[in-house]
C-alpha cells in the first residue's frame, strides 16, 4: 500500500533572533497510510507544527524528502504545491484561519476545488452541526464553531491526507467530540490523518502515536 504521506530524513533549522541557526528537526522519518490516524505528540516547541507545515508543502525542508501519495513533492514549485494542497491535502491550523468577513458557508465554498451547490455545502456543514450558523460571518462565530468550519473546509475536497495542528485547542468537550467524529469518519473513508497535539483526547481515535522524542531517537 502507498503511504499518503512519507517524510524521509527531514532536517529543518531556523535563524533565531540573534541570527544563530537553531536545528529544530533532523533525521525525521514517518509514514501515514490511507485510513490511518497518526498522533504526533510532544512538548511545546518540539517541532510538531514544523513537521505539519513541511508535510503540507508550506515550508521546504533543508534536507530530506516529502512524498505525497507516492509522488516526491520535495521541490514542488509554489504553484504545484498549491495544486497538490487543493487536490490531495486538507489542513486545519492551530488557529482556524477563516476569512473573517465571509460566512461559514462561503469559507467552505471558497475552498472547494470543483463547483458545488449551496445544498452540497449545507449537507457537509450539517455533519458538523453548523447549519444554523451557515450564513453567519466567521468573525461572529465562537472559537469552537470556527474550528468546526475549518474542519469542514479541510474535508470538502475529500483529501487523501488531512493535517490537523492542535485542532482541539480552546474547544469544549462537545466541540472536541465533533472533531474526533470527523476524524473517525474521514479515516473510515480512507483519509490518512496526521494530528499534532499535546491533548490526550487523541488517544481515543489514534491508531498510532508518534512521540517527538522517539522520532529523534529513531535516527540514531
Ligand atoms: N518561522 C520560524 N522562524 C524561526 N523559528 C521558528 C519558526 N517556526 C518555528 N520556529 C522554532 O522552531 C521550534 C519548533 O516550533 P514548532 O512551532 O514546530 O513547535 P510545536 O511543537 O508545534 O510547538 P507548540 O506545541 O507550541 O505548537 C521552536 O523553537 C520555534 O521557535
Ligand atoms: Mg505547534
Show the helix and strand layout.
Elements: E1 3-15, E2 21-33, E3 37-41, H1 48-55, E4 63-68, E5 71-72, H2 78-88, E6 89-92, H3 104-111, H4 118-127, H5 143-155, E7 161-165, H6 173-188, E8 192-196, E9 208-211, H7 212-218
Parallel strand pairs: 3-8, 3-9, 6-7, 7-8
Antiparallel strand pairs: 1-2, 1-4, 4-5
Bound molecules: adenosine-5'-triphosphate and magnesium ion (MG).
Describe this structure in words.
- It is a single chain.
- With 220 residues, the protein is of the alpha/beta class.
- The chain has one domain: 3-Layer(aba) Sandwich (Rossmann fold).
- Helix content is 33%, strand content 26%.
- It has seven helices and nine strands.
- A five-stranded parallel sheet has the order 6-7-8-3-9, with helices on both faces. It has a four-stranded antiparallel sheet with strand order 2-1-4-5.
- The protein is globular, with a radius of gyration of 17 Å.
What is this structure, in a nutshell?
This protein is of the alpha/beta class and 220 residues long. Helices cover 33% and strands 26% of the residues.
Q: What string gives the helices and strands in order? A: EEEHEEHEHHHEHEEH
Which regions contain 5 or more consecutive residues with pLDDT less than 50?
A: none
Strand content: 25-35%
Strand neighbour order, sheet with most strands: 6-7-8-3-9
Gyration radius (Cα, Å) is 17 Å
Give me the CATH architecture, please. Answer: 3-Layer(aba) Sandwich
Fraction of residues in H or I helices: 25-40%
Distance between the termini: 27 Å
What is the count of structural domains?
Answer: 1
Number of H/I helices: 7
Total beta strands: 9
The residue-averaged pLDDT reads: 93
At the third CATH level, what is the topology name? Rossmann fold
Largest sheet: 5 strands, parallel
CATH class: Alpha Beta
Small molecules (ligands, ions, cofactors) in the structure: adenosine-5'-triphosphate, magnesium ion
Category from helices, strands and their pairing:
alpha/beta
Amino acid at each position: 500500500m502507498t503511504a499518503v504521506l512519507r517524510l524521509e530524513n527531514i532536517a529543518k533549522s531556523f535563524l533565531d533572533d540573534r541570527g544563530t541557526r537553531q536545528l529544530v528537526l533532523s533525521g525525521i522519518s514517518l509514514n501515514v497510510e490511507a485510513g490511518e490516524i497518526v498522533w504526533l505528540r510532544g512538548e511545546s516547541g518540539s517541532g510538531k507544527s514544523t513537521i505539519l507545515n513541511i508535510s503540507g508543502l508550506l515550508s521546504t525542508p533543508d534536507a530530506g524528502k516529502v512524498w505525497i501519495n507516492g509522488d516526491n513533492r520535495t521541490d514542488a514549485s509554489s504553484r504545484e504545491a498549491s495544486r497538490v494542497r487543493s487536490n490531495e491535502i486538507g489542513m486545519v491550523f492551530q488557529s482556524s484561519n477563516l476569512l473573517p468577513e465571509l460566512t461559514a458557508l462561503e469559507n467552505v465554498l471558497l475552498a472547494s476545488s470543483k463547483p458545488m451547490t449551496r445544498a452540497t455545502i449545507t449537507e457537509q456543514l450539517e455533519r458538523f452541526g453548523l447549519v444554523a450558523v451557515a450564513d453567519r460571518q466567521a468573525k461572529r462565530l465562537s472559537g469552537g464553531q470556527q474550528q468546526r468550519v475549518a474542519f469542514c473546509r479541510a474535508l470538502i475536497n475529500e483529501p487523501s491526507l488531512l493535517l490537523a495542528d492542535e485542532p482541539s485547542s480552546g474547544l469544549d468537550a462537545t466541540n472536541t467530540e465533533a472533531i474526533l467524529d470527523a476524524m473517525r469518519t474521514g479515516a473510515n473513508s480512507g483519509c490518512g490523518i496526521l494530528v499534532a497535539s499535546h491533548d490526550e483526547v487523541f488517544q481515543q481515535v489514534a491508531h498510532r502515536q508518534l512521540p517527538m522524542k522517539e522520532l529523534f531517537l529513531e535516527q540514531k
